[in-house]
Amino acid sequence: MASSYMLPGAQQAPSFHSHPSTASQPRQHHWSPYTENGGVILGIAGKDYVILAGDTRSSEGYSINTRTARKIFDVGSGLVLGVVGMSADGEELARRVARKIDDYKRSHDKHITVNAAAVMLSRILYAKRFFPYYVQPLLGGLDENGVGAIYTYDYVGSFERESSRAFGAAASLITPFLDNQINLKNQFEPGSNGEVPRKPGDMPRETVEKIVKDAFTSAVERHIEVGDGLQLVTVMRAPPRAEGAEPEEEEDEREKTAGGGVISEVMSELKKD
Amino acid sequence: MCCVAPDVVVVASRVAGLGLGSGSFGIRNQARVHETTTSPTSLSTLLASTEHQEPHLGIPIKMNQFPHGWGRPRDDVYGAYDSSYLNSSEPTSHTQRPIVTGTSVLGLKFNGGVIIAADNIASYGSLARYDNVERLLQVGTHTIVGAGGDISDMQHLHLLLDNLLIKEQYPADDHSLYAPQVHTYISRVLYQRRNKFDPLWNSILTAGADPKTSEPFLSYVDLRGTTYSAPALATGYGAHLAVPILRKHVPDEESAASLSLEEAQGLIEECMKVLWYRDARSGVSYSWAVVTKDGVTTGNKKIEKQSWKFAEMIKGYGAQNI
Questions:
Q1: Catalytic residue at B95?
Q2: Could you tell me which chain B residue has the CA closest to the CA of A133?
Q3: DSSP alpha helices (H): ranges in chain B?
């Protein structure tokens, strides 16, 4: 019998017919527990901020289910989770992560750090190694030094920290744009005659927000599963209190998130055709 | 059957996995392994033989003589071995298919409430098997659940919802289940069943209104646990035929908030008529329900003012002469 670990295309060619040892075909109708709901998300980490953005279209095949589905979730403790793929799995994953982060805070009386949450999310995904969440997640937050962090995953929990990443239907359209505009690939210092490459990093948040919006408006033009609205979520350090201003309430130091991050959300329009 | 050496028997029963003791050996036709007879001395001869005949007795050999399947019934004599009952490496699967089905459910928000409608047909394939089926269920005081897809799964879900309501009903504590809670409950049930590979084969709309704020609620959930909300929703063919019409009038929440009940009723009527014209699994009579902060109003309606004039124009699909 063909091993379930056989690579596609690799053919077992026995010189004889072996006798059956397992059921050759499970008796079942072709029903898939998975579906694809389109959409695209992207995350960019800055020196003291993180931006996660996603479109708000949710589709199935050629049908648009709704134009107002959020893909970026506030999972507590100043962390945000972006999910794209199958929305039912994505929302379930976001609920579980939010619940775990809340549990952590209640057990340890402190906020989880983004790197600890990143490992935890990897474990959650790997625990379903043989019936995976059909989701590509991006986890964002400020690390202990207040520096922006984006953690990117595959379906079964492999992860790494990156500075920018696009996932989802139009990831292949947005990725080269980010390479060029965020990581400044193939860009050179003016006047260097193409000798000195431009160095990435240290981009002001306002500039990055413009690049994010451009990325989405371009993706909308070329991908049918992307559009309708843009959800732009930012994690940044809480603005320092104005000089001489009295604190409104007694502030508990423990209420501050691990990286001091505060989450804000801006919704805007994208083309709906 | 008299001269088989014991070591051959051991090999045969082990390979075949029948685990027969040597005590049963020699009873003719008791098991397929014993259909065959052989002598260890003649094995090499047999392997080379294309005749597949016991060389001494002229009895046809029905046992597989090749080393990889030795002792098993020969496929060309008995047919391929049915292995389907053997343990599968796949996860347990209960996946069924819908049998008796209902078609679309429509839902539309308006200023101060929601209207929802579903026809009364339950189909068995293309047969309109039952023509008086209620697919809208009132859950509590301010919620209507409309189901498309498998009718028996819908009825099972109705049972779950009835039990949920009894369990959660405490008259003294002033808490009741409203549409958001009912929708979330249904979505968890459906998602859990898809995780068990035993889905409830339905697409469901939950409609309701908040008794205090009048805020309308309308949400969809299907057999994979996929959920979404919009001011206008439909399941099944309605998603293709009715939603474009509804969205033209109600593209977003703001326009739904300025839609009157009468306009909403007119739109639903129009869409039910379009579905009656074009969806072959739909029915001429349908149930509707309106939920506002004052509660639920329900009714039954027949498609009126039908005109099949357009059908004359349709050519090329049937057996007519063009």
A1: yes
A2: B195
A3: 6-16, 43-48, 75-78, 151-168, 179-195, 237-241, 243-249, 253-257, 261-278, 309-313
